[in-house]
Amino acid sequence: MPTPRAGLDEGHSGEWLRLMRCLQPGGRPGFRFVVAECNAPLARERVIEALKGHGIDAAVLRLTADAPADLSDLDRRLAALAAVHPVIHLVGWEEWERAGRGTLAAWNVRRERFAQACPVPVIAWLIPPDVTRLVHE
Questions:
Q1: Which of 6, 52, 110, 124 is most buried (most C-beta within 10 Å)?
Q2: What is the pTM of this model?
């Protein structure tokens, strides 16, 4: 199993190995909604870069207050990225949700339908309060 590149906190090696197992080409194919709890944007970007260094050509969909416009638009954008990338990183959910574009709970309810159109893992990078809400909603 590959180890993280320099610049990543070795104290998180267990999380790194779990993430790599989720993303290995020989692993379970198809959609997976992977929740990555992270409140440090620089650490998140280092992990995304380290994954590239291990041959994982992932797309990054950055949610902003402006885009995507709503949950249906988000689904379409993720499906389009899934057609050309084996993994998608979804970042910025907290900003997008604060702008009233959609809630994580509402998207989570839709994910089973979306899973049929998106045959790749989606890594949702969430801040701790969003992870808690996802678990309890």
A1: 124
A2: 0.83
